[in-house]
Design goal:
8 helices; Nucleotidyltransferase, domain 5; 2 domains; 6-stranded mixed β-sheet; about 250 residues
């Protein structure tokens, strides 16, 4: 018997690579080795769909496995509505239709931060947490995911809140820390302003902080002065794939 039939497949589409793997939903871990193919220079919907097809073939993904695909943009009912860090050709494209036609199977397309946040809520730092969990990823920008009692509220985009007349991520993203060579303390001041604003608006029960910089969480999170508990993410770079597979399975 081919046990892969019960394992959904997650694909994480990023600026430098398109990565995928089948996921064991019992453990939240990859069921086979992750495969990565470089993102094409012209990362149009058609070109990315071709890469995803090649990835599924290489992985020998089961023909009936649910497939979830992340896109770094707002996704409403399968249609991409923003493209801040990807090819502008994605805007207003029905990504569900593009991938379904190319792959010959139903797919679930979602925002990348939503997928990663949902995975953290199910298997990572927020597993078992009731109430409202807000997962933020600190990188080039600030991605976000809201999960209430285990249910994802998609496309929150709270990294783009206007604070003191500025888009929040232009003041508090990790790229800003790197660009201006800020100390951890200086950056923590900007993060405190950001998280206090989010705290005031949403009154969450827990913040989870992801992104590559989260591996240095002990150097800056203790300096963020807010009332809500705030902890680093634990799934690291597996979260997008795991979350994509999980959401695809739930919506299959």
């Amino acid at each position: 018997m081919d046990t892969r039939q019960a394992q959904p497949f997650g694909v994480d589409f990023g600026g430098s690579g398109i990565k995928g793997a089948p996921v064991d939903l019992g453990t939240g871990q990859f069921a086979a080795e992750r495969i990565r193919i470089p993102t094409p220079e012209q990362a149009t919907p058609a070109n990315v769909a071709a890469i995803v097809e090649a990835l599924l073939v290489r992985a020998e993904a089961a023909s009936d496995a649910p497939v979830g695909i992340t896109v770094p943009g707002v996704v409403k009912h399968g249609v991409v509505r923003s493209a801040a860090n990807i090819d502008q050709a994605w805007i207003d494209v029905d990504a569900d239709a593009v991938f379904t036609q190319r792959l010959g199977r139903p797919v679930t397309v979602m925002n990348d931060a939503d997928a990663a946040g949902f995975a953290e809520a199910r298997y990572g730092a927020a597993a078992g947490q009731s109430g409202l969990v807000i997962v933020t990823t600190l990188g080039t920008g600030i991605g976000s995911a809201l999960v209430f009692d285990g249910v994802l509220v998609p496309n929150s985009e709270i990294g783009h809140l206007e604070i003191d007349g500025h888009d929040a991520e232009t003041r508090a993203a990790n790229s800003v820390r790197e660009q201006y060579d800020l100390s951890w303390q200086e950056w923590a001041e900007a993060l405190t302003t950001y998280y206090r604003t989010v705290e005031k608006l949403f009154s969450p029960d827990l913040f989870v902080v992801g992104g590559g910089v989260s591996k240095h969480a002990d150097r800056f999170l203790p300096l963020v002065r807010i009332e809500t508990p705030i902890v680093p993410a634990t799934l690291k770079n597996t979260a997008g794939i795991v979350g994509a597979a999980l959401l695809a399975d739930e919506r299959a």
